[in-house]
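Class prep. Write one:
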Amino acid sequence: MTVLKTSMRNFLAHKGRMALSAVAVVLSVAFVCGTLVFSDTMTTTFDKLFAATASDVTVKPKDAAEAGDEGPKTGKPESLPASAVAQVEKADGVKSVEGGVTSDSVTVADSKNKNMGPSSGAPTLAGNWTKNDLRAMEITSGHAPRGPTEVMVDADTADKHDLKLGEELRTITAAGDFKAKISGIATFKVTNPGAAVFYFDTPTAQRELLGATGRFTHLSVTAASGVSDTQLKKNVTETLAADASAYKIKTQKETADDDAKSVGGFLDVMKYAMLGFAGIAFLVGIFLIINTFSMLVAQRTREIGLMRAIGSSRKQVNRSVLVEALLLGVVGSVLGVGAGIGLAVGLMKLMSGMGMELSTKDLTIAWTTPVVGLALGIIVTVLAAYLPARRAGKVSPMAALRDAGTPADGKAGAVRAAIGLLLTGAGVFALYTAGQADKAKDGSLFLGLGVVATLIGFVVIGPVLASFVVRVISAVLLRWFGPVGRMAERNALRNPRRTGATGAALMIGLALVACLSVVGSSMVASATDELDKSVGADFIIQGDQQGLTTKAEKKLEKTPYISHFTRNKEVDADITLPDGRTSKDTSLSAADPSYAKDLRRDTVSGELSAAYGKDAMSVGEEFAKKHRLKVGDKLKVAFDKGRTAELKLAAITGDDGSFDKGAMYVNITTVERYVPAHRMPQTRIAFAQAVDGKQDEAYKALKDTLNAYPQYKVQDQTDFKQDLKDQVGQMLNMVYGLLGLAIIVAILGVVNTLALSVIERTREIGLMRAIGLSRRQLRRMIRMESVVIALFGALLGLGLGMGWGATAQKLLALEGLMVLEIPWPTIITVFFGSAFVGLFAALVPAFRAGRMNVLNAIATE
C-alpha cells in the first residue's frame, strides 16, 4: 500500500511530464484500435452486402471469374444457356429460378462523356433487374427498366453525379455502345461500399453485355419452404448430373464466403500495413517513455536515497517506478481506445469522401479491440520503464544522499558500444550480401535482416555516435552563436545516452522516409530511362480497367495524322515443349508486326520481326534457358478456348529491361486463325506513330477520337512519365502520412526531453541568469540544443534510410529497374525540416525556462 501511495503521489506530482508520455501511448493505441475497428467495419459492410445479394443457390459457368479476379479478356463474361433454367426448375425443393446477367467490363457515361463509374477503384456493374435483386435493393423512384431505351441506377451513383429521371446515359461494352434514359433509382438496403450499379431489362442486358441472346451469366435459385440451402445444392447438382462438370454450384453461404475472401486479401494488406505503422509509433514511443522515466529517476535521486535509508528495498523502489509506468499505461491506453474509435469514424468519413461508402451504422467494435489496445499500451509502457526502474533500484543510499545521481557504469557503456558495433557491422554485411544476390527473392531475406540489424545497432550505439556527430553539427552550426552556441553544445553532450535515445526516436521515422524516397525515385527514374530506350512510338493508348472495344479500335485506326496503329492483346495458352513437358497457363503477347518498331526489344538469338511471321513466335531468354530452347524449335501451343497450333521459335528476346520482360510474342493474325472471333481478347494496350512533323496534330486528333470514351487515355511519352511519377508520388505521400504518426511521437520525445532537462538544470539556469545571461539568450540556448538533437536524429535516419534504399534498388535492378536515383531535394528538405522540428519542439520548454524566477531557481536543490 505504501508503494502504491508513493507512486500515486509521484505520478500526480509530475502531471505535465507524464502527459507528454501519455500522448505517445494514446496516439499509438489509437492507431492500433482505429485500424482494427476500421477493418472490422469494412469486413462487416462487405459481409452484409454479399449475404444480401447471394441467392439460396447460385449456378455459374465453370470458367466464370470469381469476385476480385481479373475480368474476362474478351470483355464479355462467361455465360450459360438459358435452357439451364428449365433443367434446374425440375430439381426437388426449387421454388423459383431466375436467369441473371452481370458484367463489370462496362463504362457508363453521361451526355458530356463523363464517366459515371466510381473513382475509388470499386467496379461499375451492369446487369438485368431480377426479383433476386430485391434482397438487397428497393426501387425508391421511378420504375424498373421495361425496354431497350431504359436503365435504372443505384441511388448512391445518382446522388454523386446528380442524375435525374429521364436523363440519358451511354453504356460502352465489348459488344458496342447504346443509350438509355433513366427510368428508376434503386436504393441499397445495406451499405454499398462504392460500386456503381446499372440495371437493364433482360433482353437488352443479354444482347449488349453478352453479345448474344438466350444466355445468362448465372442462375439464382430460391429454395422452397423447409428446404435447406445445402439440400437444394445437392438436388440441383443431381438434376444437372450430365452437365454438372460445366457449372459451379454454390450455396448462399459459399457464395458470400468466396466473395468475402476476394476482398479479404485487400483488407488484410491494408490492415497489417496500418498496424505496421502503429508498431513503428510504439517503437518510437518506447524511447520517449524510457527517457521520461530515466530523467525522473535521476531528478529523484535524493528522494530514492531517503527511501532506501529508512528501509525501502531495491524491489520496492523498482516496484514504485513500475507502478507509475502502469498508471501511465492504463490512463494512456484507455484514452487511446476511445481515440481509436473516433479515428475509425474519421477514416470512414474520409473513405466516403473518396467514393467508398461506409456507414457508421455498421461500426464494428469487437471485444478483442479494446483488450488488444489496453494490453499493448500497458505492456509496452511497463517494459519501457523497466530499465529506468532497475537503474533506480541500484542507487545506494549513501550515494543518493550525497546527490551523486544514478550510478554511471563505464563497463556497461563499453559493452553497449561493442554490442552496437557488432550489430551494425552484421547489418552492413547483410545489406552488402543482399546487394550481391543473383535473385531478388534470395536477396530480400538479407535486406530484411540488414535493415533490422542496422536499425537496432544504431539505436544501441546512439550514445557513442551522439558524442561525435553532435560535435560535428555544433562546429558547423552552433559556433556562429558564440558562448550561447557552445553552452547548447555542452548541454546536448552532457548526457549522450539521453541525446542518443531522443535522436533515435526521430531517426526511425526519417530512415523509413529516406528509404522509400530512394526506392520510389529509383523506380520512376528506371521506368523513365527504360521508356526512352524501349518505346519508339509517339503515343500510348490504354484503359484503366477495360480493354479497347472493337468500335474504339476502328475509330483510332482512322485517326488522321497517324502513320500506323499497333494493337497488343494478351492470350492464354498451354505450351508443349520439344522435351514433352508442358508450360500451363502461359501468357502470350499477340501484337501487330509494327509492335517490333513501337517497343524496341533486343534479341539474343534470331530476329524479332521473324516472330511476327506466319505460325512463328518468340520467348524470353530466361524461359529459353530454363527449357533449353533454341531458334528453330517447334512448340505446340494450345490456345485457351481455341485450337492447338505448331509454332516455330523465331527469336529469343533479352530480359534486361523492365518493359515486357519475359514476354512471348506472336502475330495477332496467327492467333486469329486458331481462336474463334468471339473468344479473341480485347486490346490491352495500343501504340500510335504520328506522321513525321505532325506530332501535335496527331496528339490532338487522338484526344478528339477518344473524347467519347472516358475509360481510355492517350498519352505521349511526357504524359506517361508524369503519370508514373504521380502514381508513385501518391503512394509515397500516403506512406509519409502514416509515418507522420511516428514523427509526431518523436517530436513529443524531444519536447519531453527538453522540458525535463530544463527542470533538471533549474539551479544552473538560475546561476547563469544571475551572472548576466538574458532571457533571450537562454531561450536561444535551449532552441539550439533542440535543433542539434533533431539534426543528429535526421543525419542518422537519412543516412541509414539511403543505405537501405540503395540496397533495395540493387534488388529491383534484378527485375529490370536499373537506375539508382537519390532524391536530393526530398532529402535536403527533410534535413532542414528537422531543424524546424527542433525549433518547434523547443518553444514551450524555452518559454518556461525564460519565465523562471532567478532567486527561486538558485534556491532550488
Remarks:
- Residues 404-408 have pLDDT under 50 and may be disordered.
- The two ends are 29 Å apart (CA to CA).
- The chain is about 55% helix and 15% strand.
